[in-house]
User: Which sequence fits this backbone?
């Protein structure tokens, strides 16, 4: 048996296109397309690439974007003022502050000032509270992408056993809650978990979100299980030439692909889904703020 490869890039392209269609319908009522504002502080090259990709995909889908860039020496109060300005701008539906912020800026204070109804990253306390309480709200993008891919692969997730490895606010915890919302039985593992390999072998769906290259070995994965590899790790690849590197996930793909039921590759699996869910959240935020309905299948 060989695992089905889950093509996150293809699913993400489909969601981008659908966000564009639903956004275009909303635009008729709003008199403008849904709008995402992205704030980038400093000149971190990786953040620059992420922001450019987010803006490019937003515009390619027919939504609009505003990009606000400030140098790394901007004060925390100025960043808070930018966020509050965007909160008050009726033409902005979604606000994303690219992380990480420079050390002198308290990220929690900045995130805490984002209007929860524009919190397209799903990171404010209000968004987290809505998720825990099962109330409608904007859900964190990467975990929402994991659940969507799992449903595409396996259908109804009710009763499935899910092991999420990692308990971060960004990925692990919200992923666990989102799978719980789908009536899966969820266990969260972390650095203190006893017998992690044994626990992983119980999972119908395994979600490594750790940041350790190829940590999850072949014999940690139950035959037929679905592996949603969130980790993105850059490792040396001397076989590609001197000084070359490549990306790998938290799962040892080559050891797992022979007996898992489904697996997401890295790159091209969960990664592209994160931006797709951001576009979806932007459209959902625009509809919600205007009191408009979005199609039930979106
Ligand atoms: P964090 O560093 O915030 O969290 C990592 C988690 O892994 C922690 O909960 C930690 O446990 C746990 N952990 C560390 N070592 C082990 C171990 N040996 N065994 C079990 N658990 C362990 O990372 P993030 O959640 O932000 O990101 C995780 C990975 O996902 C990274 O590779 C990141 O690049 C990637 N990522 C990918 C995205 C995408 O779009 N595909 C988006 C966001 C992140 P403890 O709490 O006990 O310390």
Assistant:
């Amino acid at each position: 048996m060989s695992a089905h490869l889950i093509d996150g890039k293809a699913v993400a392209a489909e969601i981008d296109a659908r966000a564009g269609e639903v956004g275009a319908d909303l635009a008729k009522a709003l008199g403008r397309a849904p709008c995402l504002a992205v704030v980038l502080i400093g000149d971190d090259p990786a953040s620059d690439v992420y922001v450019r990709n987010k803006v490019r995909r937003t515009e390619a889908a027919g939504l609009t974007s505003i990009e606000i860039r400030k140098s790394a020496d901007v004060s925390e109060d100025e960043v808070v003022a930018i966020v509050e300005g965007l909160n008050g701008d009726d033409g902005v539906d979604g606000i994303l502050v690219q992380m990480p912020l420079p050390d002198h800026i308290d990220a929690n204070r900045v995130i805490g000032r984002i209007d929860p109804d524009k919190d397209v990253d799903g990171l404010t306390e209000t968004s987290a509270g809505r998720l825990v309480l099962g109330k409608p709200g904007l859900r964190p993008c990467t975990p929402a992408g994991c659940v969507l891919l799992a449903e595409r692969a396996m259908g109804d997730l009710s009763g499935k056993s899910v092991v999420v490895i990692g308990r971060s606010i960004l990925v692990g915890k919200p992923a666990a809650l989102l799978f719980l919302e789908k009536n899966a039985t969820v266990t969260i593992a972390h650095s203190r978990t006893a017998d992690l390999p044994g626990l992983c072998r119980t999972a119908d769906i395994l979600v490594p979100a750790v940041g350790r290259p190829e940590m999850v070995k072949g014999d940690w994965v139950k035959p037929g299980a679905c592996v949603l590899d969130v980790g993105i790790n850059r490792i040396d690849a001397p076989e590609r030439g001197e000084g070359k590197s490549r990306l790998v996930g938290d799962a040892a793909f080559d050891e797992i692909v022979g007996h898992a039921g489904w697996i997401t590759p890295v790159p091209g699996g969960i990664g592209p889904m994160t931006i797709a869910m951001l576009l979806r959240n932007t459209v959902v935020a625009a509809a919600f703020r205007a009191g408009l309905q979005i199609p039930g299948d979106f």
